[in-house]
Amino acid sequence: MSEAVFGSKVLERLWGDPERRVARAFSIEDLRLIAKRRIPRVCFDFVDGASEDEVTMGLNRRGFEELTFRPRYLVDVAKRDLSTEVCGTPISLPVMFGPTGLTRIVSANAEVDAARAAAAAGTVYCPSTATSTSMEHIAAANGGGSRWFQLYLWRDREVYESFVRRAQGAGYEGLVVTVDVPIAGKRERDYRNGFTLPLRLPLRQRIEAARHLEWIWGYLTGPPLTFANLAEEGFGDDAALLGQMVNKELTTASSTYQDLRSLREIWPGKLLVKGTMSVADAEQAVACGVDGIIVSNHGGRQLDGLPATIDVLPSIVAAVGDRVEVLLDSGIRRGSDVVKALALGAKAVLIGRPYLWGLAAGGQYGAARALEILREEIDLCLAMIGCDSVRNLDPSVIEYRPGHRFASQQPPMAEAGRA
Amino acid sequence: MSEAVFGSKVLERLWGDPERRVARAFSIEDLRLIAKRRIPRVCFDFVDGASEDEVTMGLNRRGFEELTFRPRYLVDVAKRDLSTEVCGTPISLPVMFGPTGLTRIVSANAEVDAARAAAAAGTVYCPSTATSTSMEHIAAANGGGSRWFQLYLWRDREVYESFVRRAQGAGYEGLVVTVDVPIAGKRERDYRNGFTLPLRLPLRQRIEAARHLEWIWGYLTGPPLTFANLAEEGFGDDAALLGQMVNKELTTASSTYQDLRSLREIWPGKLLVKGTMSVADAEQAVACGVDGIIVSNHGGRQLDGLPATIDVLPSIVAAVGDRVEVLLDSGIRRGSDVVKALALGAKAVLIGRPYLWGLAAGGQYGAARALEILREEIDLCLAMIGCDSVRNLDPSVIEYRPGHRFASQQPPMAEAGRA
Amino acid sequence: MSEAVFGSKVLERLWGDPERRVARAFSIEDLRLIAKRRIPRVCFDFVDGASEDEVTMGLNRRGFEELTFRPRYLVDVAKRDLSTEVCGTPISLPVMFGPTGLTRIVSANAEVDAARAAAAAGTVYCPSTATSTSMEHIAAANGGGSRWFQLYLWRDREVYESFVRRAQGAGYEGLVVTVDVPIAGKRERDYRNGFTLPLRLPLRQRIEAARHLEWIWGYLTGPPLTFANLAEEGFGDDAALLGQMVNKELTTASSTYQDLRSLREIWPGKLLVKGTMSVADAEQAVACGVDGIIVSNHGGRQLDGLPATIDVLPSIVAAVGDRVEVLLDSGIRRGSDVVKALALGAKAVLIGRPYLWGLAAGGQYGAARALEILREEIDLCLAMIGCDSVRNLDPSVIEYRPGHRFASQQPPMAEAGRA
Amino acid sequence: MSEAVFGSKVLERLWGDPERRVARAFSIEDLRLIAKRRIPRVCFDFVDGASEDEVTMGLNRRGFEELTFRPRYLVDVAKRDLSTEVCGTPISLPVMFGPTGLTRIVSANAEVDAARAAAAAGTVYCPSTATSTSMEHIAAANGGGSRWFQLYLWRDREVYESFVRRAQGAGYEGLVVTVDVPIAGKRERDYRNGFTLPLRLPLRQRIEAARHLEWIWGYLTGPPLTFANLAEEGFGDDAALLGQMVNKELTTASSTYQDLRSLREIWPGKLLVKGTMSVADAEQAVACGVDGIIVSNHGGRQLDGLPATIDVLPSIVAAVGDRVEVLLDSGIRRGSDVVKALALGAKAVLIGRPYLWGLAAGGQYGAARALEILREEIDLCLAMIGCDSVRNLDPSVIEYRPGHRFASQQPPMAEAGRA
Questions:
Q1: Would the pTM of this model clear 0.90, i.e. be above it?
Q2: Cα radius of gyration (chain A)
């Protein structure tokens, strides 16, 4: 028995078996509650929180909850197919791991674990630029899996040209350009917790953190919390870099669609923009030659006051859905949310917090569990609305309650169009 | 004095007189609270809970609460008539006992008690396939009462052919085909409580259960918790069967309206489908020759995200109400809910939780009390809206508040049409 | 110093000066809280509660709260006039004391105190039939004040003919026929408290009541809790009578508009119906020759599920407002509620709970305080919307928020019509 | 080291450094919570509370929260310009200090501190007539800053003529005439706290106040709580004056637009009315020659039942926005609220409670911090909606959710109109 394996056995005794632990989570909310118990408050809040009054985060949930289904029964749904394709990449379920910054703080090998979980589940992992593991190491962990890479439009053009070369070299099939961070959002939980980079916690938070021995062990023994991708670009002293990164000094609020067009010219793979919340922006992105648009409000973490993504999805699909693929993120907590998004025209969804809570709850097992929960719930939902494949979902599965704010916009029902 | 009678007198001393106990319940909610105190949490939650976030269960209540009445006064309502007829069966009030699985867990002789209470009250009892008492024994207890039988569309065609023969033999007048269980709903309270069949509770639940001596006594001394109907079909080992039943392996997600049509050919009595939530499904069922349609979302226990039944009732009534009888269940807690459903076109309603809470609170007395409470409330409501018979209810008794989501759909008021 | 005066001085020392006590109430809610502390729970709940789930009671409040004002400033409102006239009776403010049964249970001389407070304030007192003080004694206490008398349509025609003669003899100017009690409402707080007549409380309630010495003193030393008006009609044993009264056996669910027409023929004074909640009923009452219609849902104490009175007022005013006077009750808690009701066409409002809480809090002083609070609030509201008289209120003072359920019904604004 | 400086150093030790204290406030709500801890309840409630049931105060918040943004990304927003001009006065951000009475009670040198903070931040300070510091002293503290003066329309015409002369002399550029106080609002928190002038607190409040030593020190050592402006007008005994002032005996409910017209004739500077909540009033004010209209419901402190200011703003802008400048106050708590108000046509906003909480939390530092927080939030919001200047905001940045009550009123989108 190797030392590492032996060590992990010992720790398992100490902290409990992560696989069994996450198996007791029946819902994403269960994973969240396990995560809340297991990691320091400052880390949990970084993931769990949103900006200012967290109004948008709440709207995301309300948007899904206000939509109801129009089910069809006595349809042969003995076999349900969850697989689909996004921008040419086949996925085994319409849920991908979206980009999340500073993921390292939730568990010791967060990005490697996420890369493995996604590959094993047959879906895409899209790491953020701001990972503690370099994109090349993530690619190695991801192995035969599919991966996309998230990019900001950097002030220094050479930086993203280098990223493009590296992404190509490491087998990333798509680039996801985040457009909704001209400036960092105001996340007040982080301010109150004294969350800075590197972590420099006030006494109260230190005491709270001290209760989380497993997390501390992982933090001390795992890879350092850095921006590995940037370090490889030759950026200097880490601490200063982190500060700059967080303050977006390296990226720029002066980026325009011209920069997107330039990127399109040098990147041969699939190109997507993430953060689009208006028809006008969607049209401009399409004009720049993107392959996909991710309707996103950054999980409510950027501008508080944005509407729910599910509320703006239909108009964007109506405008550009015939030319590019439209994806969605922000607020997905249930398989039925995924079904609703697909019914209204999304090709697939990305999740953030759900797999981060999984990582915090049980590393790779937890990230895998998040996908497994959603997979089961999507499958259940398909069976119960009478649809045999996620590719057959359309607005006819939605029952717009009289008075629902979309009721008057309801696309003509194509009832015959389903199985 | 027979031993049994003597024994029951002794127990009455121990547990209290069930008849007096339920007489102190003034509302269905009161019965619920008594039930909550008297049976183990795991059993209470099985009845009380719904699937996932229990959103649909909440919508059912909100649907009723948002409807208000337009009362008429100084109408002669000295005599109010609650009797009506459903699919040819006369009932003394427009409320029936709907099918509920595993009813045995709430009290020792649950199904026999329910059968007696329904017969005594002059209404229909529709036991589930999944009873611990065979349909023949239930029929015997039901005596001169009216009864329907609930059926799934079984994978094995011979099974339901046998059920059809047995149902005929035992005097069941109607068959109710449940269509909304292609797969079991995700009831997370049960998952968390460790509710499995046979009951295999975690320690925490065992300790909690130990406080409920009367329930334990009934559980140990009453008939075993089995699927009696299936046992008689020659299905083998009980434990395995229960598992299969719960996982719906015996029934099938591949059933179609063709199966319903086949059933129609071999069943001479009344045929109803239960679970219809769309006009399209209602049309298809009518085309298969059903006599009635039960608008139901399974009390919110199957797909979470379905709308309230009272919200979809009007469109289904408008589509097929002139050809078949439309019934409704899910969320009935007050006599006024029954009146609202009838006003919008339902012929009668079925209840589930209300009589289960009654059974848990006081066996047959409790089930009878549930009907008695609703009977009094319906009677009161009729008097106060100025209607002398449930058969005279129509949409004119509903006051659509300006802004109510049905306001624009309001059927033309037939004000003159009432007494 | 007379014995009585001396006694009251002693008691004042014991219980505190009622005048000073109620002076510390700044709102109707304050009076309610004082009442809650001072009288037994069973009595407080009888006044405070409503039927079943108390949904209608809540809608009454929401109806007012959802209406907002469109104020006009720099209008000369140095003098505001709150006086108006209802059915020929001048009143100093548009608020009257409506009929409330069993008023005696809140304080020792409830009806006499109310009669005096109303007379002193220059408004109408309309005692219920179900008072413990005979209508003649109440008339004596009311003195030069204006009074109406509330009547049910009795099963026994001679009874109300006698009431008509007595009302005339005792100087009652109006008769108010309650039409919304074909049967008693289901007030579950009373059921749970064991509230019966005569009071026969369970132990728990007795213990609770024992803490309220002042109330007990008043209950024991004051006039007995009877139905004095009926006793004078020669009805026999009190206890039985009370039971019959409460169960409405003496009145009848078979009354029709024909009975109202008959009453109209023998009653020379003003005639009003109370409880009308539909245009159709309003039309029928007008056809019977009534002088006024009181839109009321009995404070939510009869049929739970009725809409807010302020929500149905506009359509009734539109239908019959040019032929009879329309009044309103149920849910009035603020002067601004009164202003809203008048703006939408009510001539005045009646209050129930507010003055009962006043009586419980401080007898006549408390009833007077309730009127005083509302008078001040109406005055304040007039000044702040820029209207100099309650007689000049019209819908133009209401700002229908876009999306308010009445917005589309808004009568054409007569902006120029105001001062 | 001067004595004063030494003293303040000592006190700083005792009470803590106010600058560092307010630096830990990340939002206006944070300032509020610090204020709540630091000053007596009676003073906090005077600022924090509103009239009657505080419904309007709640509507103000809901009005802002229900509006969502339509962001545009990849727009060059590297430079954002928050400066604008109101009625000819340039301001560095579209937020001004509005008039607040009795400001002295929150901190020792409240008005002087506010005047300095506003001048330092480059915005307007508009002190109330009811300050404890004379308008001349405030002007001195304000120095080179811009200032307006708030005025009631006094019963005694000579009084406001004198004020006009003094305002001119002291360099006030604008006069703000408050029109929504024909009578004082009913602020029940103050009634309950026994808040009178001069402060005469009940025992319970005295004990509570005793815990706030810093506030007591400031109250005893600072300038007296008087109406300095009135004292200089030769009004006599202070205590009596305060009472009269509060009861508005000195001002008048009989003022009309004629008085406004007279004022216009004698005041050469900018003239604004504050409190307008209807199109009709706005039209009349414009006809009187005002330069600006402040849409205000007095923070919910006058008539409870007024709609949110953001809800009435669009119709007033549509009616008179091309002839005068429209400003807004009431309910501003976030930079995004300011952006929403400007997008719907306001030129700038005024704040009240936010800077009073700042003063209570840390004197001049706190008032400055309130502006700093809003400045940062406005800047952030501009960047994230893709707008480079507050002067370029228009309704196209608002995403009316389908079903929002304004949706049907949405002005035609001028999407192309933005950068």
A1: yes
A2: 21
